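Notebook entry, structure prediction.
Reason for the run: the old model in the group folder had no record of what sequence produced it. Starting over properly, with the input documented here first.
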Amino acid sequence: MRWIVATPIMLLVLALIPAMAPVVTPAAAQTPEGDHNQIVTSGNGTVTVAPDQATVSVGAQAQHANAAEAMAEVGRTANQILARWQQLGIRREDIRTSSVQVFPIYNAPREGAPQITGYRASYALTVTLNNMNLVGSSIDAAMAAGANVVQGITFGLRDSSSSRTEALAMAVREARQKAEAIAAAAGLRIRGIDRIVEGNVAVQVREMRAAQTAPGSTPIEPGNVIVTAQLTVVFTY
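New structure, fully documented this time:
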């Protein structure tokens, strides 16, 4: 009879063989079938709501022979706008300086280098209004104070959380309707939801822009703000 002497290397290999064998757990054995019983649909929700907040940007432009004079003029106009807005009851903390610019103006001679002929300065103020009735009157007051530029008006929502929630709920309902229609056509029944993946939820603010506006009564129609939501739902059957 021949004897085999086990070396340390042989013992190590024998010890590792059980660990290398595949282990099948009950959970792993149950997953392959269920993962394929899915219907994936997308949903969209749209909510239209009247805006309750507006931002108005107005300003002044002036041109003079030197930069200091141009800046001084638009600065005086800005102070007059601030005073008029405060007379309307607009709080100073709702107003901010949104732009200050000064740049040279050049001539274009047929020969030789361009020469500076003056300077143009601009100063813009932006006010946030929670009283929609003040939108038109704030523009009128700014024009009366010397403003000669309206950079834009934006309408939005102070708090869009409820509209976002409503849009998401509408998106889920649409996704479920699609899944139930598919399941019914295929002779299946929806049993539950595996997961929901939220997509884009956005508030589409409405913007109005104008280069210049003449003084006078300014009627404003804010229209509506649109809140949209998209998502994907994985249903099981």
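Summary: The chain has five helices and eight strands.
The old model has been moved to the deprecated folder.
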